[in-house]
Amino acid sequence: MANASLQSFLLPQHHSFVNAGGSHDSSPSALLKLSNNSGSISFRLYSNTSPLVTTTSTANSSAPTPVTPAAAADSPPSPSIDLLGRQLAARDYRQADDTTRALLIELAGESAGRRGYVFFSEVQFISTEDLRTIDKLWKEHSNGKFGYSVQRRLWEKSRRDFTRFFIKVGWMKKLDTEIEQYNYRAFPDEFIWEMKDDTPEGHLPLTNALRGTQLLGNILTHPAFEEESQENEAAAEESATATGQSKDDNKGRDRPKFMKDFKPNYSF
Predict the structure, then answer these.
(1) Partner of 112 for a Cys bridge, out of 8, 35, 43, 108, CB 3.0 to 4.6 A?
(2) What sign for the dihedral angle of Cα 196, 198, 204, 207?
């Protein structure tokens, strides 16, 4: 009779869950009540599963299936100002450079995020406050040696000539040849990821110039650095006046032969 009754409950029937008190091995329980024309039967169900364990529904169930959150231990952390600060405080300049690049992509807007890199025209969307904060962290954790504002000052000293600037910050290396020649450093192994006495000023952070120098130019001319640039220019004029020189004295000088018609074509 018991078997027949149980078999009858496999046919279409009314069923309901009723919350019930009590526990079994400290596990919550629920009362399942099944009924049809022949009568009803109740089952008390105990759950020993963790709420994070994946569960599946039956084929005829329309209830959504809970899914276990994917483990994030192996995924890289999301870029943030706090993460950049921790990496720079630990002198992990290699990772800090990657985080800086990822931050610029995120701050430049959704289009840059989907694309995976920043157009030079999108630099304007990066807020002055955010860019100054990034620059400040780089300077604070490098004794003033790294940062965009440092690069801006060196770029101005190079008369905004990018090849001169690349040589000054060490993005190009001098070749061991009879005539003066330079070549781009290979990323990442030939760049300098430690702050030493001979590490060139302004060497980090890097800016990808594979598509030309407009991106770097727009970063260096961002309003975030205008005020500091004006202060540097005023100080330079005072120094030039004191030494009897003019800031325009060198404007007429030709570029060295190796720098003429030099086209940047590197990526990092």
Answers:
(1) 108
(2) negative
* Structure token digits, residue 177: 């040849």
**The whole model's pTM is what?**
0.65
- DSSP, collapsed to helix, strand or coil, labels residue 236 as helix
Summarised one tens digit per residue, pLDDT across range 75-131 is 778 899 999 999 999 999 999 999 999 999 999 999 999 999 999 999 999 999 999
Report CA-CA distances (Å) from 112 to 3, 109, 117, 156.
66, 6, 5, 28
In the block, residue with structure tokens 């590490």: 199
Query: Which of 46-65 are b and which e, b meaning 16 or more Cβ less than 10 Å from the residue's Cβ?
Result: eeeeeeeeeeeeeeeeeeee
Fold of 81-247: Arc Repressor Mutant, subunit A (1.10.10)
* Residue 64 DSSP symbol: P
Question: Any idea where the domains of the chain sit in the sequence?
Answer: 81-247
